[in-house]
């Protein structure tokens, strides 16, 4: 178990053991945000894996280390990102994808919402995040977006 307790807002029972293993990597990564644990987050990723972050209608291209570096670890505010709906997991041998709606909270209040699209590679028996694409939407402006 990671440093913080994951609150599941979805049904984990529908997933196979391998699908839960993929999902756990994403949960560990997100737990690292709330715990301000850069090491926990880094342990879940291939550092040079790619990321496309859609912000204000424009893409930001970076690698997964860059995604982690964007987290305001030194902020005095409580921060948390959590999966806010039922995820979709697909696996083919040693690659996987995960589609997750999310909420990003600052001081327990929703700041923005969106969708994370994760890709994974299985190396030496361990799933790692190999890439991510996401968007960030203002809650009132995103009705029906998930």
UniProtKB/TrEMBL annotation:
Domain of life: Eukaryota
Gene3D superfamilies per record: 3.10.450.50
Protein name: Nuclear transport factor 2 family protein
Source organism: Lentinula detonsa
Biological classification of the source: Eukaryota, Fungi, Dikarya, Basidiomycota, Agaricomycotina
